[in-house]
């Protein structure tokens, strides 16, 4: 049965709405019809009762009816019966009776099944009476009585009773059917037209999609939003969260359950996340009017959110040309940073090997030239000299720096600087113990970027770069990189560590402005700090906690 109902029930939105409206209209039809029948029935009964009383009062005025109740009544009997029969025929009544008031016995009647005695009512006391033949609440026969009053008599001498059949429900329905059908038909037409217009409007608002298609789209949307690797965060103009998928909740470390409708501040979001929406209205909560809308947009903005590097893209969301909120896509860049660190170490090693190969090639040319000139003593002195310089550099770095990765970075950068005619020195007071893997990687990333910036800042041949490494002391490693370049402009110190900012001339699309931003992010992630000052050149100071 259920399968049959599903098969018979319309499948389209318009069909379902029309069927539902028709069902509602049908129920209204039945209710209105029942109420109309009940009201009409009361009216018909009331008319029949009043008609019966009118006939009874008319009969009481007949001379024969009055005389039959006197002392010579037998002589007037035929005339009285004729008057009763005439009244019955003309009024289409069931019966017309004449009874004495003394005992209620019927003395004359015009009926198929005449009564012998009338029930005593107010008519016997001189008042008209209306009711049923059996005097109950729902009589099958309507009865009306009128007293017969004779001149000279103080009391009525008789009573005329008229009975009429009580109208049935079908009689009532037949009476009201024409009007009822007209009204119900008009209501049905209005209901059908309204249903069609409503279905058309709803279909237009749902882009012509049926309910099953809309439900499928919603389910597919939820599956996609919670299944993609990128985080998705949407807020309205009042700063309340309207959408938060699983990945965004994980990246931002905020609860997903029950987040919709709450502001980011209420969910415990940190300052870095709130900075995505710098407009105060997006965080405070009041509703913003259309004239007070404020767009927020950001492309590939890197944030440090509770130990994670997150790249965010914020775009405005518009609906029918009106700004309704903002959506942010979030990507985890922590793994990319780790990969970039490893790449920095590999690049440093590659640069070191390239510099060594270039320097080795030059030295071999010198040795080959001296041998060709048969200057064998000079060959020995030259080899002894370059061997001593290499051994001195290796010994100096190896003695001061116990961490092999950092020592390898210094050696590579030293050779790279020598290739460009720049002197890279390790401060005599430097001492660095062996570090754990994460701290060594972080320090290498910072050291490589700061030395690269220093080598680019100093002039070739006369440039000098000095590196100082200390620690771990008091739970932190300290790094200082100074150069004899032009220094950092005072106006640039506030924006020096912003991604994409660079004091060097660069062509559009180049990768300038990344190194110092990466340095600050690594320091911030470990809870450290980086600062810059000028002292006959730029001086960068870094402090990295060991924990």
UniProtKB/TrEMBL annotation:
InterPro entries: HATPase_C_sf (IPR036890), HATPase_dom (IPR003594), His_kinase_dom (IPR005467), PAS-like_dom_sf (IPR035965), PAS_fold (IPR013767), Sig_transdc_His_kin-like_C (IPR004358), Sig_transdc_His_kin_SpoOB (IPR016120), SPOB_a (IPR039506). It catalyses: ATP + protein L-histidine = ADP + protein N-phospho-L-histidine. Signal peptide: none annotated. GO terms for molecular function: kinase activity. Its EC number is 2.7.13.3. The keyword Kinase applies. The chain crosses the membrane at residues 180-199. Gene3D superfamilies: 1.10.287.130, Histidine kinase-like ATPase, C-terminal domain, PAS domain. PROSITE patterns: HIS_KIN. It holds the Pfam family SPOB_a. Keywords: Kinase, Membrane, Phosphoprotein, Transferase, Transmembrane, Transmembrane helix, Two-component regulatory system. This is histidine kinase. It comes from Knoellia flava TL1. The lineage of its organism: Bacteria, Bacillati, Actinomycetota, Actinomycetes, Micrococcales.
């Amino acid at each position: 049965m259920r399968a049959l109902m599903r098969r018979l029930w319309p499948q389209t939105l318009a069909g379902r709405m029309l069927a539902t409206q028709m069902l509602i209209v049908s129920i209204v039809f039945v209710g209105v019809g029942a109420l109309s029948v009940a009201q009409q029935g009361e009216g018909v009964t009331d008319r029949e009762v009043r008609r019966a009383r009118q006939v009874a009062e008319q009969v009481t005025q007949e001379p024969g009816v009055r005389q039959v109740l006197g002392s010579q009544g037998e002589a007037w009997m035929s005339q009285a019966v004729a008057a009763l029969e005439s009244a019955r025929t003309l009024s289409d009544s069931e019966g017309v009776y004449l009874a004495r008031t003394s005992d209620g016995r019927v003395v004359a009647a015009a009926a198929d099944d005449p009564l012998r005695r009338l029930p005593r009512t107010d008519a016997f006391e001189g008042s008209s009476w209306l009711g049923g033949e059996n005097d109950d609440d729902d009589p099958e026969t309507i009865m009306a009585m009128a007293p017969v009053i004779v001149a000279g008599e103080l009391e009525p001498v008789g009573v005329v009773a008229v009975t009429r059949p009580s109208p049935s429900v079908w009689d009532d329905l037949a009476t009201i059917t024409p009007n009822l059908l007209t009204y119900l038909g008009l209501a049905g037409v209005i209901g059908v037209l309204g249903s069609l217009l409503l279905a058309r409007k709803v279909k237009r608002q749902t882009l012509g999609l049926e309910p099953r298609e809309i439900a499928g789209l919603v389910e597919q949307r939820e599956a996609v939003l919670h299944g993609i690797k990128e985080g998705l965060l949407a807020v309205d103009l009042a700063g309340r969260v309207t959408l938060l998928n699983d990945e965004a909740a994980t990246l931002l470390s905020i609860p997903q359950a029950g987040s919709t409708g709450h502001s980011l501040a209420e969910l415990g979001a940190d300052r870095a996340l709130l900075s995505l929406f710098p407009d105060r209205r997006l965080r405070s909560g009041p509703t913003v009017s259309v004239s007070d809308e404020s767009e927020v947009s950001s492309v590939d903005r890197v944030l440090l959110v509770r130990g994670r590097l997150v790249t965010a893209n914020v775009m405005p969301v518009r609906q029918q040309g009106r700004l309704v909120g903002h959506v942010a896509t979030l990507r985890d860049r922590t793994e990319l940073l780790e990969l970039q660190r490893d790449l920095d170490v590999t690049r440093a090693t590659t640069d070191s090997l390239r510099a060594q190969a270039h320097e080795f090639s030059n030295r071999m040319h010198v040795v080959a030239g001296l041998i060709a000139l048969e200057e064998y003593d000079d060959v020995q002195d030259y080899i002894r000299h370059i061997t001593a310089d290499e051994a001195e550099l290796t010994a100096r770095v190896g003695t001061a720096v116990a961490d092999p990765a950092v020592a390898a970075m210094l050696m590579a950068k030293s050779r790279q600087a020598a290739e460009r005619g720049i002197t890279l020195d390790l401060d005599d007071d430097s001492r660095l113990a062996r570090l754990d893997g994460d701290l060594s990687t972080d320090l290498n990333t910072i050291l490589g970027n700061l030395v690269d910036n220093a080598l680019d800042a100093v002039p070739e041949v006369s440039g000098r770069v000095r590196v100082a490494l200390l620690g771990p002391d008091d739970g932190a490693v300290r790094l200082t990189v100074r150069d004899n370049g032009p220094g950092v402009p005072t106006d640039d110190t506030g924006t020096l560590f912003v991604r994409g900012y660079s004091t060097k001339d660069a062509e559009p699309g180049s990768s300038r402005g990344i190194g110092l931003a990466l340095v600050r992010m690594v320091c911030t992630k470990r809870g450290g700090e980086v600062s810059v000052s000028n002292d006959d050149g730029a001086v960068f100071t870094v402090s990295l906690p060991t924990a």
